[in-house]
Specification:
Two copies of one chain form a homodimer. Chain A is of the alpha/beta class. Chain A is built from twelve helices and 15 strands. Chain A has a five-stranded mixed beta sheet. A five-stranded mixed beta sheet of chain A has the order 13-12-11-14-15, with helices on both faces. In chain A, strands 1-3-2 form a three-stranded antiparallel beta sheet. Chains A, B: It holds the Pfam family MarR_2.
């Protein structure tokens, strides 16, 4: 019994969708411009905009200042029609951020954990960070349309955390299942360095760059890559793991810093920062330790550079806060190893890179729903039902 | 004074182009099918096909056998409307092949050179191989629409040979300039391993594979990669050079074979083959030498695999003729180094892979001309004028 009524309703949905696509990522448009872009008649375009305003997707904007005669009405996509949640679950901290559909941060929070924090406590910290963000933002859970989690470890394309060296009990954790208790919305899971690379390309120092390597310089380094404009995840999601090769010497390289003479007795997670501070003011033992750390970092970086020949290397991760101490030695160590030296830039997003990359991936997911789902308007109007 | 006459002529050209695109890469089509695909009227489609047959681009095919009633005429793209030339300039041989626009080899030839062959003599050998192919194929120079050269060494995106370790006087050779004395057609230059990777993806063991690493196992190994379905050349064309890293141990790895006890006195370029033969029948010294060669090959291969996480590794290059001796030891050496073992397949194109990849790249270039040039019909009708 769907017949003509069902067809008409479907046609209206498709028209609304066309109107929505025309406005997404565009400056405000007039009815005439919208009619041209969608191929709809002016009357249909008018109906579509009224429908989209009713649903909360579209808003009218005031006429352009100084316009002559009777100014044409203009419409814009409401980037606050929905929100996404980005999470960063690291060894020593958990971060959360709620952004609008343009990636603007509405609320963000972080809480400290440690390498030895048991799985359940780490998940509790995640829940606390989310609750704090929701409370600060005043965004109801139902208005969060997609959730992306960045986590340490290798994450397969189905979002399973398969291999983790930095946190003993983290492999196999069911993040989508855990978050599914709070959210009915889709939960995506990805490796943290990959999300940081994505954030640098979308929002950070690598905008307009199509081929880049992201180096996470920290106690346990990591890497990720953008190839031909796209995040390269690999056939099983395990790209960027060249640091696992013994010949690359990444696995134990933080020990150069942690065993630096003169710093014994400090907590291991603080020594690196202290060594960088000492190196900055010329302490010879600290400079030597930094040099050995950088020499090992450069071998893995050179393997990535010689393999991919990227335009740019972005140096991020916790140690990139001491980028002033690291950058020149890294350049000097890389030059003799590389066929062509790429440009090296310090991350501009710093500690926010993973949550911001997570938000970018969640927004991509919302866009895909908008652009390809059978019935995205319905799906997104009731996000709890999206699977 | 171009006015209406010029416009009409341009419209006819655009219609012909639409007809050509519809047939390129398609089975034979009837007039009705062509009209539907091009959006032209049946009468215009008829005119267009007559024009394309006059120009030699299109041929009529006999009606399908067993068709009832008056059978509809069908048309096909003439893959023999033009030809491309692929070249492979290696350390110890030069190869040439002429293929039609579907990549079918019409004529192929090879001639031996050596690592010590001076540049001019190597170029003379190239000219002899080309002349032999032209003579065998009976294809006039004017019917060769594009030329692609695969060469050892790093090749930048402008086709300049920038860095070569295997041939002393080869860096800086102007291959496009040299071939330009014989051909007015476009000459593309690329690294040989990259073309071999392309050939394996288009015509060989990697069809349908979107992410693969090609390993050239030879006296001087090389590598190339297809990422997300596309040949990844790198920002300066220098991707795949991870073997230059000392930690990867590729540079001297052939010495494991060449210094194998019991083979002294044989010419260096023949020892590897003899060692593989001896290993095949269980000679302990040869097995040991092969094991050490494979252990070093595996380090570079693991760096590529850990970086990219490809679906497939294709083992090609001169030594892949002894794939039966290499494949199992390589798998065993790689397994403990990799997070996820990709499938490993032996090249099915063997020594033809570089010339075939060169032909593929030349055909891509012809397709680009057909699909995007301002006036491709005119351009390709007088290929000498294409630049």
């Amino acid at each position: 019994m769907e017949g003509v009524g069902g067809d008409l309703q479907r046609l209206r949905q498709l028209n609304s969708l066309a109107g929505l696509h025309a406005l997404r990522g565009s400056p405000p448009l007039t009815l005439a411009e919208l009619a041209r872009r969608t191929g709809l008649s002016r009357a249909s375009t008018n109906e579509v905009m009224a429908d989209l305003m009713d649903r909360g997707w579209v808003a009218e904007v005031p006429p352009a200042p100084g316009a002559m005669g009777r100014p044409a009405r203009r419409y814009r996509f409401r980037s606050d029609a929905g929100y996404v949640l980005g999470l960063d679950i690291g060894v020593d901290k958990v971060r959360a951020a709620i952004t609008d559909l343009n990636g603007e941060v509405i609320a963000g929070g972080r809480t400290a954990v440690g390498a030895e924090t048991p799985r359940q406590e780490r998940l509790d910290a995640v829940d606390r960070a989310i609750a704090a963000c929701l409370a600060m933002s005043n965004v109801p859970v139902a208005d969060i349309w997609a959730i992306t989690v960045g986590t340490v470890g290798v994450v397969d394309l189905e979002g399973r955390v398969t291999t983790v060296y930095a946190i003993a009990d983290w492999a196999g954790v069911d993040l989508a299942g855990h978050l599914g208790r709070t959210f009915g919305q889709p939960v995506l899971v990805a490796n943290d360095s990959k999300l940081a690379a994505l954030a640098e390309q979308r929002l950070g120092v690598a905008r307009e760059v199509r081929d880049l390597v992201y180096l996470h310089a920290g106690r346990r380094p990591g890497a990720a890559m953008i190839v031909d404009g796209k995040l390269h995840r690999g056939f099983s999601g395990a790209s960027g793991e060249v640091g696992l090769l013994d010949a690359v010497r990444w696995i134990h390289m933080a020990e150069h810093l942690e065993r630096c003479p003169g710093f014994a007795g400090h907590p291991p997670d603080q020594i690196a920062g202290l060594v960088f501070e000492a190196a900055r003011v010329g302490d010879p033992a600290a400079l030597d330790a930094v040099g050995r750390y950088v020499a090992d970092l450069a071998i893995g970086a050179a393997a990535l550079i010689l393999t991919l020949d990227p335009e740019l290397v972005v140096l991020g991760g916790g140690f990139s806060r001491s980028g002033d101490v690291l950058l020149q030695p890294l350049r000097r160590a890389l030059e003799p190893l590389c066929l062509r030296m790429p440009e090296i830039r310090l991350s501009s997003l710093g500690e926010d890179s993973v949550v911001l990359g997570a938000a970018c991936l969640a927004i991509d997911h919302v866009n895909r729903l908008l652009l390809s789902a059978d019935d995205p308007l319905l799906a997104l109007a009731a996000p709890g039902a999206v699977t």
